[in-house]
């Protein structure tokens, strides 16, 4: 017997899914344990072992690997809870991170914020100027050394930073991505002075053109690298002490995992790692169900996440934005807002009901958790509305206090708005659906897609309670709630289903037609780096898949578009074909006729993505077929529509449902780790894998 385990550490709950090589899948859920999240990981593993009826040591001894998605890097950056770091750069270029290429005034801001021009600022510096120091050196754009590195000056700069308590240094020199010799020598010098200082090099973290983005990526990776290293070291030690046989893998933003020992050196690649698990899981399940266009929605305790799968492939980005700074990280495209189950409902100065972005998280949690929280959340509203059972969550292991929920809503929302507690709870539920619907429109419609061509997948602890409504806001006809044994731990299922994925990139700007020999040399170098990286993971792969791509743009423009490059030796025809794909994709993104090929086309950044396919990954087992109609396990008053009040609603126990059962709304389906709402006018049909498909009832039409 061999197991694969996926662990999804969220701000509120930690989820885990275990799969064995015989097709069995089980899931578990436990509260997250900030600030030491490793305790929650070990607790949820204990719950998995309990379901197997085995000691956790025996389970881990037969585990092929553990795939772990963590929010620690992202949360630390977003909340700016990072240690002070140092920054070394080429003389004359220190201020690039403070000038911010002007972008610092607008990156990451909403259209509403951008309307207030005078309110824009650049006060969100990554580090104080006293920690940003310059060294004498210069490499030109062709990678030639123009000015040698002043090593004595480097030593003085490092000693200055050490004297100020700095234990991590980011090094980003001009044109280092063309020749990293000076950056590598600086790392050697730092190691001679103090080998315990963490050092990150831009030539390894972000070997991409554009100084500000490369600098900010390297600095932010340095800010989270030591903390990630310490966390993973502690977790890996705890797992090894409990007998883990296989490696601990860490999910990356690109949708694949990497060995825990490798992750801290590329710490920025783990930012958003937990966000991509659901997209990977949706892609895996979509192949089983025959869905090629999927809107993946994950509503956890803290966030609402949206990712798209188009024609069978997750959408990707090459850059993201955190705290108004560009980050050069190949990533699956995921949109997120603070609108999870623990999102706090509040009334602003204008008397408007708002949801999030602040969250009650695991501590103190929603008011109904009775852990000291006093602010109302989506979870509190769902309890008051009868959507959640008063018997509690996690199969009754997490007790809920209805009176605490009512009191929080009464004082913070109902009385300020002049509503009853029940109507205020219904307003919170409606506002949540409208807010998530807005993000869906932005992610789908504004990206140029027709939502009628998509199936929406809804998961997470809170997603199934809201999905039918926010799908209606978007105009999607079918919703799939992945249930079976994974339920709200679907992102952890995606982590367990992930393979090893590495990416290497290199900027080498040139006007087309590019010399095929030059392009082939770049790809060969990157592929060699990827294959060496895969070899270091310590795992045997069924096969290795290599994908080559290049970022192109029209001359005199900044908008770059990523296009695939065919396998095999590059010649002029292959380069021309890539250029044709660029023009076609540019027209698709920006409008027919918007391109201007007469200006010329430039190849900017070359990229190779490698995927090491692991021997096995989770497959949801088939469910027993239904024999007769589904049995109602109970009834309770549920308030789902403003103006209708409470309606006596049947409740179904998911454990008693079988493939082919049809549940007619309004109805509640209770799963130990989540609750599904099937509104009036909808039906929920259980498929052969145990998933619930929510569609319009025939009597209500499509």
From TrEMBL:
Domain Hydantoinase A/oxoprolinase: 214-501
Domain called Hydantoinase/oxoprolinase N-terminal: residue spans: 5-192
Domain Acetophenone carboxylase-like C-terminal: 521-695
Pfam families, A to Z: Hydant_A_C (PF19278), Hydant_A_N (PF05378), Hydantoinase_A (PF01968)
Matching InterPro entries: ACX-like_C, ATPase_NBD, Hydant_A_N, Hydantoinase_A, Oxoprolinase-like
Designated name of the protein: Hydantoinase/oxoprolinase family protein
């Amino acid at each position: 017997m061999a197991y694969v385990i996926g662990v999804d550490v969220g701000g509120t709950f930690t989820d885990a899914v275990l799969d064995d090589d015989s097709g069995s899948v089980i899931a578990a859920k436990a509260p997250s344990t900030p600030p030491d999240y490793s305790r929650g990981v070990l607790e949820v593993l204990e719950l998995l072992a309990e379901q197997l009826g085995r000691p956790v040591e025996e389970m881990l001894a037969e585990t092929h690997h553990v795939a772990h998605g963590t929010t620690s890097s992202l949360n630390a950056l977003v909340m700016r809870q990072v240690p002070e770091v140092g920054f070394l750069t080429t003389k004359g270029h220190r201020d690039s991170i403070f000038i911010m290429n002007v972008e610092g005034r607008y990156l990451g801001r909403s259209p509403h914020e951008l309307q207030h021009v005078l309110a824009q600022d650049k006060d969100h510096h990554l580090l104080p100027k006293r920690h940003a120091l310059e060294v004498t050196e210069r490499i030109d754009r062709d990678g030639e050394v123009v000015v040698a590195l002043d090593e004595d000056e480097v030593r003085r700069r490092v000693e200055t930073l050490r004297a100020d308590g700095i234990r991590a240094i980011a090094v980003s020199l001009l044109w280092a991505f063309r020749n990293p010799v000076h950056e590598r020598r600086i790392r050697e010098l730092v190691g001679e002075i103090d080998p315990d200082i963490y050092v990150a090099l831009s030539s390894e973290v972000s070997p991409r053109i554009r100084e500000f983005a490369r600098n900010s990526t390297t600095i932010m990776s340095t800010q989270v690298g030591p903390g990630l290293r310490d966390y993973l070291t502690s977790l890996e030690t705890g797992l090894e002490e409990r007998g883990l046989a296989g490696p601990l893998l860490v999910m990356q933003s690109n949708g694949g995992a990497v060995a825990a020992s490798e992750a801290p050196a590329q710490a920025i690649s783990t930012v958003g790692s937990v966000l991509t698990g659901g997209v990977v899981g949706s892609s895996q399940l979509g192949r089983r169900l025959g869905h090629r266009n999927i809107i993946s929605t994950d509503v956890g305790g803290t966030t609402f996440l949206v990712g798209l799968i188009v024609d069978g492939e997750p959408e990707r980005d090459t850059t993201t934005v955190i705290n108004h700074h560009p980050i050069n990280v190949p990533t699956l495209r995921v949109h997120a807002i603070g609108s999870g189950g623990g999102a706090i409902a509040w009334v602003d100065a204008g008397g408007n009901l708002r949801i999030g972005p602040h969250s009650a998280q695991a501590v103190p949690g929603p008011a109904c958790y009775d852990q000291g929280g006093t602010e109302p959340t989506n979870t509190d509203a769902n309890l008051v509305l009868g959507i959640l059972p008063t018997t509690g969550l996690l199969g009754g292991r997490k007790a809920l206090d209805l009176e605490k929920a009512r009191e929080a809503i009464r004082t913070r929302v109902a009385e300020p708005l002049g509503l009853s507690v029940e109507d205020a709870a219904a307003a919170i539920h409606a506002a949540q659906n409208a807010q998530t619907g807005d993000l869906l429109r932005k992610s789908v419609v504004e990206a140029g897609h027709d939502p009628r061509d998509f199936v929406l997948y809804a998961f997470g602890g809170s997603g199934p309670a809201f999905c039918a409504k926010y799908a209606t806001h978007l105009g999607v006809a079918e919703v799939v709630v992945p249930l079976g044994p994974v339920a709200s731990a679907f992102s952890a299922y995606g982590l367990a289903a992930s393979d090893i994925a590495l990416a290497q990139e290199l900027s080498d700007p040139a006007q087309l037609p590019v010399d095929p020999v030059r392009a082939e040399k770049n790809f060969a170098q990157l592929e060699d780096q990827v294959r060496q990286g895969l070899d270091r993971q310590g795992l045997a792969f069924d096969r290795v898949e290599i994908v080559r791509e290049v970022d192109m743009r029209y001359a005199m423009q900044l908008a770059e578009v990523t296009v695939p490059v065919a396998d095999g030796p590059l010649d002029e025809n292959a380069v021309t074909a890539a250029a044709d794909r660029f023009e076609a994709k540019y027209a698709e993104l920006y409008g027919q006729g918007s391109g201007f090929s007469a200006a010329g086309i430039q190849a900017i950044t070359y990229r190779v993505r490698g995927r090491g396919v692991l021997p096995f990954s989770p497959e949801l087992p088939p469910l027993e077929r239904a024999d007769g109609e589904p049995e109602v396990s109970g009834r309770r008053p549920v308030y789902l529509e403003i103006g209708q009040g409470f309606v006596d609603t049947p409740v179904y126990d998911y454990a008693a449902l079988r493939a082919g059962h049809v549940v007619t709304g309004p109805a509640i389906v209770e799963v130990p780790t989540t609750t599904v709402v099937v509104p009036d006018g909808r039906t929920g049909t259980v498929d052969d894998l145990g998933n619930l498909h929510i569609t319009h009832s025939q009597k209500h039409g499509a």
